């Protein structure tokens, strides 16, 4: 009886923390195969949770994991049949998956709290909890960590990030590395990775050279409005929560990773406000994305590496995603990505996919207005979208996997930072 009561309490708490999962009762997940053009076309109309590169699939075609509601399932399955796009059902009820994730996270946070820790690597935390932790680090390590109150989100939440430097960013020969996370709200596993990188540089310093010889800018939660909305209202929410564009009353929000000023406005499928990949009314229309822009521009001349943490798919993707061609330094860009990927793979779980490194358009499909392409265009030599592991859970990764993911990803970041130092 006691076990039943505890289970019910956890489920009730999960309902609060995990949002209104009831809206996803009966929603099913399907894996659909097609060409990159066919999958890109789907992205404008369907919720594509991930894309699997053709190199990983038995069909030899790109595969997308899509969510279909009970109301739209039959029409879309008929569409796939008409286009000769094979599909397989992989989950019967998305709501059950969300409930399970929420219950586990409540239990994990309770365990961390009992142990006296403000942040654990086995749980997901709210915007306020993450900001409070950054402030704690700024107070405890004032000579190393500067907390920047960078600006307010559309709904008025404070966006904070840290600048980590033993020399207060005053030694101009030191390279700078910039990392951001949670541009896409539902990708909960990305903030813990950013926070763990901060931890390894500031608290449990494992490689003093990386702290002494590199200045770091880390933005752990770039899209707080969308993130909080995904916690309390809609676990699958991806975009910001702005209402500054035509049609925003029925379709609020912008895809932050289509809002950067590189080839912005060149893809019709990103111009539709109700699309999950809506690029916004103008480049840098979103205050959250302007925070990233300004943080990058502040030290642009000496920034050597930029990584945007996303979930999921085990990939290092580089420019140009807008047209499939390579930057002038494409060879070394690929080489550095492979080195980081191998460092992660060396620590990965047996069931994890090995990392794929490549041009974003060739590995997946064309995309415009991304941070990866914009940062490369403004002069940062090494820029990547890093898609973290999802295993069989996608971006609904149970919190017990976060410690594994943050640990292995740090190995890749450490390798990339060392590469930057060794090639200067």
What is the element string, with H for helices and E for strands? HEHEEHEHHEEEHHEHHEEHEHHEH
- CATH superfamily membership of the largest domain: Zn peptidases
Mean pLDDT: 92
Number of spatially distinct domains = 2
- Report the CATH C-level class of the largest domain: Alpha Beta
Large-scale geometry: globular
Largest sheet: 8 strands, mixed
What share of the residues lie within helices?
Answer: 25-40%
Assign the structural class, choosing from mainly alpha, mainly beta, alpha/beta, alpha+beta, or little secondary structure. Answer: alpha/beta
Number of helices: 13
Describe this structure in words.
The structure is a single chain. The chain is α/β, with parallel strands linked by helices and 424 residues long. Helix content is 37%, strand content 18%. The protein folds into two domains: 96 residues, Alpha-Beta Plaits (2-Layer Sandwich), CATH 3.30.70; 280 residues, Zn peptidases (Aminopeptidase, 3-Layer(aba) Sandwich), CATH 3.40.630.10. An eight-stranded mixed beta sheet has the order 5-6-8-7-9-12-10-11, with helices on both faces. Strands 2-3-1-4 form a four-stranded antiparallel beta sheet. Strand 10, helix 10 and strand 11 form a beta-alpha-beta unit. It is globular, with a radius of gyration of 21 Å. The N terminus is likely disordered.
């Amino acid at each position: 009886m006691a076990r039943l009561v505890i289970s019910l309490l956890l489920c009730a708490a999960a309902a609060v923390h995990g949002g209104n999962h009831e809206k996803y009762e009966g929603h099913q997940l399907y894996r659909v195969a097609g060409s990159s053009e066919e999958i890109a076309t789907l992205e404008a109309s369907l919720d594509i949770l991930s894309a699997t590169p053709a190199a990983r699939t038995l069909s030899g075609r790109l595969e997308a994991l899509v969510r279909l509601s009970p109301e739209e399932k039959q029409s879309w399955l008929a569409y796939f049949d008409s286009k000769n796009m094979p599909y397989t059902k992989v989950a019967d009820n998305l709501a059950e998956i969300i409930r399970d994730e929420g219950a586990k996270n409540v239990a994990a946070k309770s365990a961390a709290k009992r142990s006296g820790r403000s942040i654990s690597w086995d749980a997901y935390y709210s915007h306020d909890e993450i900001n409070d932790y950054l402030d704690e680090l700024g107070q405890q390590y004032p000579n190393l960590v500067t907390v920047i109150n960078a600006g307010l989100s559309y709904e008025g939440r404070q966006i904070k990030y840290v600048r980590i430097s033993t020399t207060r960013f005053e030694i101009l020969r030191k390279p700078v590395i910039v990392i951001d996370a949670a541009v896409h709200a539902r990708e909960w596993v990305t903030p813990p990775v950013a926070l763990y990188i901060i931890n390894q540089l500031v608290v449990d310093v494992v490689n003093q050279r990386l702290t002494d010889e590199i200045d770091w800018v880390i933005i752990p939660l770039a899209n707080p409005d969308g993130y909080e909305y995904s916690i309390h209202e809609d676990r699958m929410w991806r975009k910001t929560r702005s209402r500054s564009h035509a049609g925003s009353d029925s379709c609020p929000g912008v895809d932050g990773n289509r809002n950067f000023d590189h080839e912005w406005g060149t893809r019709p499928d990103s111009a539709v406000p109700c699309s999950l990949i809506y690029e916004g009314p103008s480049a840098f229309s979103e205050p959250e994305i302007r925070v990233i822009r300004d943080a990058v521009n502040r030290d642009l001349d000496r920034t050597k590496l930029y990584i945007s943490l996303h979930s999921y798919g085990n990939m290092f993707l580089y420019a140009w995603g807008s047209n499939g061609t390579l930057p002038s330094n494409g060879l070394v860009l690929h080489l550095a990505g492979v080195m980081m990927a191998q460092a992660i793979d060396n620590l990965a779980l047996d069931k994890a996919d090995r990392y794929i490194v490549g041009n974003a358009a060739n590995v997946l499909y064309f995309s415009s207005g991304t941070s990866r392409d914009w940062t490369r265009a403004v002069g940062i030599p090494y820029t990547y979208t890093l898609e973290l592991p999802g295993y069989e859970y996608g971006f609904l990764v149970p919190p017990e996997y976060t410690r594994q993911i943050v640990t292995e990803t740090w190995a890749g970041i450490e390798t990339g930072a060392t590469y930057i130092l060794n090639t200067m």
